[in-house]
Design a protein that fits this description.
The protein is α+β, with helices and mostly antiparallel strands. It is about 25% helix and about 35% strand. It folds into two domains: about 110 residues, Probable tRNA modification gtpase trme, domain 1 (Gyrase A, domain 2), CATH 3.30.1360.120; about 80 residues, Heterotetrameric sarcosine oxidase (Alpha-Beta Plaits). The longest helix is centred in the C-terminal third of the chain and has 17 residues. It is globular and about 55 Å long.
């Protein structure tokens, strides 16, 4: 785990070999450095999509801004383009890369290119709405939904996780510290 944390763009925020975290009354933000990410692109043929889904063990979402599964979780980014996130240890990346080698699909490990931040607690929604114009209220943005949006002018994938008052934020590695510092500063403003 120490090697994973050392490679993180948030490593300066980590303490005692524990990933970066912000914990204040009612709010927890923590980096999830073991969240693995694959970019999957297909030619759009149903046969290829079906083969990729079989290798993943979950169907590929077809609707815009849709997702399927939990672990692995597949986010539809654009037509014929998905981000697959899962915890390390499954061998899913290798299995999917082997399966795609004989079809019109590409699989690229982009884990080092993105940072996953889990945000939870009674103030998670209040914090996010301070920097995001997307309607994130559970009426409009319920459990299992995701959106490509911006928080404080930083491009972020926002996933309303299964747990109430819980979100996963996926941000480009180069912008992770900016987002982290914004979360840190604004959570202090909440009096959390």
């Amino acid at each position: 785990m120490a090697d994973i944390i050392a490679a993180s763009p948030l490593r300066d925020e980590a303490r005692d070999n524990v990933a970066a975290r912000i914990q204040r009354n009612g709010l927890l933000a923590r980096e999830n450095p073991t969240r693995h990410k694959l970019l999957v692109v297909t030619d759009g043929s149903p046969a290829v999509s079906k083969s990729v889904a079989a290798a993943l063990g979950v169907p590929l979402p077809e609707a815009a801004d849709a997702l399927t599964g939990d672990d692995p979780c597949c986010y539809r980014l654009a037509p014929n383009r998905w981000l697959v996130c899962y915890e390390k240890g499954y061998g899913l990346g290798e299995r999917l890369m082997r399966a795609s080698s004989s079809m019109a699909a590409s699989v690229n490990d982009v884990s080092d290119g993105y940072v996953s931040i889990q945000l939870s607690g009674k103030l998670a929604y209040d914090l996010l709405v301070r920097g995001c114009e997307q309607d994130l209220h559970r009426r409009a943005f319920g459990q299992g939904r995701f959106a490509a949006s911006q928080i404080a002018a930083i491009d972020v994938l926002i996933h309303a996780a299964a747990e109430p008052e819980s979100y996963e934020l996926i941000v480009d590695r180069s912008l992770a510290m900016d987002l982290w510092m914004w979360l840190k500063d604004r959570s202090a403003d909440l009096g959390a």
